[in-house]
Amino acid sequence: MTQHSPRVSVGLAVYNGENFIRAAIDSILAQTFTDFELVISDNASTDKTQEICLEYAAKDGRIRYYRCERNMGAAWNQNRVFELSRGEYFRLAAHDDVIAPEYLAKCVEVLDQNPSVVLCHSWTKAINDQGEVIEDQGMGVSFPSHQSCWVLSNDCSRHCWVMGRCTLIHQNQESVFAVWPAPITTVIKFLSDAFQRP
User: What pLDDT score does 186 carry?
Assistant: First the structure.
């Protein structure tokens, strides 16, 4: 029997996320676009993260849960969820972030309609631990293919907010997520001409 490859893979790399991971998973499962998988890699959490993730995985077949026996570091774990993904498009999720119900649908629409775009970025808002908006962080952008490697390697502040084409990410990066020694840089000012609001 052939296993279905979803259009979208959402990778959730987590370590000790028990306080917020339910809200993160709930927001992913509430998407209006449903052809996705949720790949969770638990980096040897010592809290109730494993218990929570297994509970969700038992209820929804789109969830695949993996656990490391020892903590391998954040960058390794983020790369792991990407390597385990099967979708045409990929989005990295954080255990303490939530996404709007139309997020995946709108990003897929932008990527489907624009073959030259490899990364799509949404409008974002910062929330506190009560889920209250504390800052509107601005516009979403989409990135043409020739700029994708620059974005992945230089804008670590936004890597959890982009959806990209897996094939092009594989072609251009040995390691998608790494530890950046340089200060965080914002790409929005350089890419205003590529702006699209998904």
Answer: 28
